[in-house]
Amino acid sequence: MKPVSQVAGRMVPLPQADVDTDQIIPKQFLTRTERTGYGQYLFYDWATTEDGQPSSDFFINDPSRKGAKVLIAGRNFGCGSSREHAVWAIQDWGFDAVIAPSFGDIFRNNSMNVGLLTIELPDELVSQLLDLAQDPATEIRIDLENQLVQAGDFAVEFEFDREPKERLLKGLDPIGMTLQQDAAISAYEAKRPAWR
Amino acid sequence: MTERRTMFEKIWADHVVINEDPALLYVDLHLVHEVTSPQAFAGLEQMGRGVRRPDLTVATVDHAIPTTGRSLGIRDPRSKKQVDTLKSNTEKHGITFFGLDDPRQGIVHVVGPENGYTQPGKVIVCGDSHTSTHGAFGALAFGIGTSEVEHVLATQTLWQKRPRTMAVEFDGPLPDGVTAKDMILGMISQLGVRGGIGHVIEYRGEAIRSLSMEERMTICNMSIEGGARAGMIAPDQTTFEYLDRRPAAPKGSDWDAAVKYWSGLVTDDEAVFDAKRHVDASSLVPHVSWGINPGQTAPITASVPDPDAFTDPVEKDSVVRALQYMALRPGTPFTDIAIKHVFVGSCTNGRIEDLRNAARIVAGKRVANGVSAVVVPGSMQVKTQAEQEGLADIFTSAGFSWREAGCSSCLAMNDDVIPSGERCASTSNRNFEGRQGRGARTHLVSPAMAAAAAITGHLVDVREWS
User: Fold this and answer.
1) Do A30 and B127 touch (CB under 8 A)?
2) A1 domain residue, yes or no
3) Are B154 and A20 a contacting pair at CB < 8 A?
4) Which position among A166, B60, B65, B232 has the lowest Cβ density within 10 Å, counted as fewest Cβ atoms?
């Protein structure tokens, strides 16, 4: 995983609550066995009409939104299915971070594991960002090291757990780290009941 | 005085390998399926890593496989490649695999319990959010993403931030004609789809204790729809009787030792939960979802809600979107809603008792004209048992299609797609937009409610069928 410390760029607003991972990456794209190439299918059913044409009023098809880096979302973003493909699609489209009042638990874990920054801010602050993000040119800057979000006059600190922060900043491979704990894992296994 | 602990706290403590925040937790059972595992195995390959405990890993195919014409093989080349990839990955690493032609094949959350892999006190993970199902046995079971699947394959452990605990007490007895599905739909409609975020729920109370294992699985299965990663129910005699003599369950003196240990997992009297909620089980009625998330659910006796009744602008917007997608008008009684499809199956309601409950309604009747009704058993073992009990004949005589086991129309990754604009009464767990097919409109109900809808052609209060 590449280290993540700063994210800077334009924003896209997606205000509705409870956006589930079925919307982020619909099931018809989950039969692929690769980790890459999902960006073209991001929000596919919202971005296309039923005959596969671009639907005009969605950000995916708005040239002024191309190259945006931060998705500003509603409550409980990424709820539902555990499909990590949702995170892969968001990253592959070009986003480096999502800011929302809350996230689905599994989606948030998946994001941490592949370096998509997920930041929780209170409802009223996310509302302010959603307003700012109406203008496709507005820039936002996220500083993970100092836990700061800034967009023009908007500047707030955010909370972030110590351990994933360090992992993201250093781009550490969690499996490699855990394999170094082999002695502890073996010791645990030695005292596990045989019938379990 | 010893510390009072919840069941969750006991299981957590028994699995901590490294006690930090997050803690390194040992995984007793890793269930694997074809859709969320290929990238994990490829990741191992790329790094030259192996599978630490193939003996604690069990794989099956369920998500994208056909439920008809299996002798012809899998037509979709990508789905075929996924299944072939899982077969070769499990062969290479020595992992037990229930392939398409195995009599034990089925939905991963049906296969685990019925073969006795799912046991109280275990930490169970799977690359699927409905892994919460296994909590019905008093296990700590939760869904994980593909990176975590790879981590568990390589290390048999996971780094986990300790979740908060929530007790949901179902007070009073469950009335006749009301099922476990109605309990969990009713709970989610009260607590909302975000009510459980960050928590592990323990379901408690009189109405829970009297449930069978299969009903308990229905409840725990949908914990994730309430935002909780895991749900659990204390093991008791019902649990032990279900597990006794299942193939992977402990035997002989091991069984005795296991039951003794399992019995001690129950939450201590006066143990403290981080949060506590109550649901009045005695006043529950059959429920039906009307919207595009499982919280948008109401009693069948009610009618389509009016967006103006919601004060929170975000909630109001959500209701407007839902009614537009579902093509429903405020004030329409739910029982006036006509349906064209009925799906009985899924990891929520695809077990033998679910099929019995549906068959009881269907027996001697015919599916309404213009309705396409399908039963997809949760596993090939469920299918065989249902055929032996005569349930398959009841369904097919009534005009239902009788299928091979799999996830099927719950997420419609195979050909079992509900057409756009058409309405389905479904015993599955998610009514998300496009879940059963792009533009398809899902109404979540219990198996009995789905069966009754198939016969009448519209949503109906199954209690009027007695």
Assistant:
1) no
2) no
3) no
4) A166
